[in-house]
């Protein structure tokens, strides 16, 4: 839980009283590998911080699953659009490894906003991180080749290649597993 405080305090100073109130709302939950955290059609009820593990966001198509995002330890995970709008999600979120989350419900986040001096800064920090991740992903798809996206992913998240099946990585960078194999042969 202290990881979360340290992360927030990079941007905003938390009083002990504000932190204690916020921390009292967090619930730690552990999930096994391949566990769905959110299913298409469900409303997201949690904003979660990943203490340990990795998750993927994907759309289930008849012909194949399309992975469009990953989240890792020391970052936030949420079907954030569903969380904010209180409408059903159009995608799944699934653990890729054993995962430990610190979760905050929508209702508890609203209480943090109302009852703490820094509540809005906390919510803004988490929301901005999720937005920036999404924005970087969109720009990467528009401006980089599949090989550049793969190399960037490898550079920024080297543990990714050890934890995540290559078929998910291929889907994430927008190519087939066979095309990823060709890129990997060229690089290594």
UniProtKB/TrEMBL annotation:
Species lineage: Bacteria, Pseudomonadati, Bacteroidota, Chitinophagia, Chitinophagales
PROSITE patterns tied to this protein: CNMP_BINDING_3
Q: Which domain of life is it from?
A: Bacteria
Q: Where is the Cyclic nucleotide-binding domain?
A: 22-112
Q: Which organism is it from?
A: Niabella pedocola
What SUPFAM superfamilies does the entry give? Answer: cAMP-binding domain-like
* Name of protein: Crp/Fnr family transcriptional regulator
Pfam families listed in its UniProt record: cNMP_binding (PF00027)
């Amino acid at each position: 839980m202290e990881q979360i405080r340290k992360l927030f305090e990079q941007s905003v100073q938390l009083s002990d009283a504000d932190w204690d109130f916020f921390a009292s709302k967090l619930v730690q939950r552990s999930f096994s590998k391949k566990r769905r955290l959110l299913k298409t059609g469900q409303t997201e009820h949690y904003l979660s911080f990943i203490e340990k593990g990795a998750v993927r966001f994907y759309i289930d198509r008849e012909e194949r699953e399309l992975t469009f995002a990953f989240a890792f330890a020391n970052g936030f995970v949420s079907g954030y659009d569903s969380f904010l709008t209180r409408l059903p999600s159009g995608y799944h979120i699934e653990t890729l490894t054993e995962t430990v989350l610190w979760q905050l419900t929508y209702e508890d986040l609203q209480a943090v906003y109302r009852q703490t001096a820094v509540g809005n800064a906390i919510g803004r920090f988490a929301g901005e991180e999720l937005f920036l991740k999404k924005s970087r992903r969109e720009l990467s798809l528009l401006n980089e080749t599949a090989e550049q996206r793969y190399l960037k992913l490898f550079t920024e998240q080297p543990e990714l290649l050890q934890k995540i099946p290559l078929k998910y990585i291929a889907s994430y960078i927008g190519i087939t597993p066979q095309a990823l194999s060709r890129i990997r042969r060229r690089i290594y």
